[in-house]
Amino acid sequence: MTVLEQPGSYRPTPPPAWQPRTDAAPLLPDAEPYRVLGTAAADGLDPELLRRLYGRLVRGRRYNTQATALTRQGRLAVYPSSTGQEACEVAAALVLQEQDWLFPSYRDTLAVVARGLDPVAALTLLRGDWHTGYDPRERRVAPLSTPLATQLPHAVGLAHAARLAGDEVVALAMVGDGGTSEGDFHEALNFAAVWRAPVVFFVQNNGFAISVPLAKQTAAPSLAHKAVGYGMPGRLVDGNDAAAVHEVLGEAVERARADGGPTLVEAVTYRVEAHTNADDATRYRSDAEVEAWRAHDPIALLEAELTRRGLIDDEGIRAERDAAERMAADLRDRMNEDAALDPMDLFANVYAQQTAQLREQAAQLRAELAAEQQPEAAESAVEEPAREASAGEASGQAVGRAAGRPAQGPRGSQASHGSRGSQGSQSSQGSYGSQSSQGERR
Ligand SMILES: Cc1ncc(C[n+]2csc(CCOP(=O)(O)OP(=O)(O)O)c2C)c(N)n1
Ligand SMILES: [Mg+2]
After folding, report:
1. Positions marked active-site
2. Are residue 373 and residue 401 in the same domain, yes or no?
3. Same domain membership, residue 240 and residue 323
4. How confident is the model at residue 341 (pLDDT cuts 50, 70, 90)?
């Protein structure tokens, strides 16, 4: 007889019956991506919304072709085109209200422009120019994020903080299929669900992470299914159906706003062009696959619906295309103007208080710039920091004075040191994971 079997001795309480923490069924995505265009439900769609979406899609595509052309002219270091994904880009911007925040990735320039940012400012980063290129607070658009998925925890933090402060803000964070394999994706979704943060995670599944197809990226039934593991609903939508994406994202945004917590939306779409202008997509996928997706084109789908309902005619289509041409001409003209850049801006807005290393680097750069402009001033510039450094002063400021420059180059100051040298271009391309032909680098 053991101690536990003796009468009156300790008996462990049996554990309570196991219960799931939440009911999984309502969180599961549908078996098929949700579609509206071409179905009976399309008759109920608001004509104004359809026209608005259409105009944005047409301009968006033209923006993509123009930006890609600018890479060939050396005006942009790199451009990740979203051709084929315009419905996702435009809908993401249009579902948000003014007080909301958009957290884009590097491929989401169109969403940034559709949110109201200057089309040229939206390309600043890709030009190898001034940091973000726009004030994120102006339109509540976070910087276009190159490090995959890092924008997601930022979106959760912002949304959670806004909720604590009682502000009615929703954050919509965009990420690619490849980005869902990042730790940041996991951390963001987990925190968002636990905190019920007002966030919408919008995954554009365009089939590839550069050359890696989705099948090598995940074994999940769909990316939307990942939501269930975190305790939030997953929705699956046809990413080329602008009306469907707008509806599904709109519902997720309103759910978040009504304190219903986060949603993960997966849009099934396709990156019709190469990863960037520096990638050769023919090396990892067939023309037939690309053509099959071109036949499911977001602009053609919406145009067919508008035409069927008599909401647009040939003249209306031409007017939208003309408007897109004017936008492209303006973009081209403005991008062909040399930007006023000061290399010293590299050191501005990095730390509130410069580190000693950055001060040293700033001093070196300032001396090099001075040497380019006035060889004599440069000589004294190199000598002076050595003296002042031994006196314990910031050497960068000493060089700045010697070279007749302010210690921190003001934004937009007229320095003639171009930003589009081959080094700038190559480092930008490298950070976008370019892996193939160097042919188009210039
Ligand atoms: C943290 C991090 N790792 C790697 C890269 C290199 N990289 C740039 S784009 C890319 C593929 C991303 O694919 P996906 O998330 O599907 O977005 P898409 O380019 O298809 O829009 C990779 C691996 C990066 N930018 N950041
Ligand atoms: Mg992708």
Report:
1. 271, 275, 284
2. yes
3. yes
4. confident
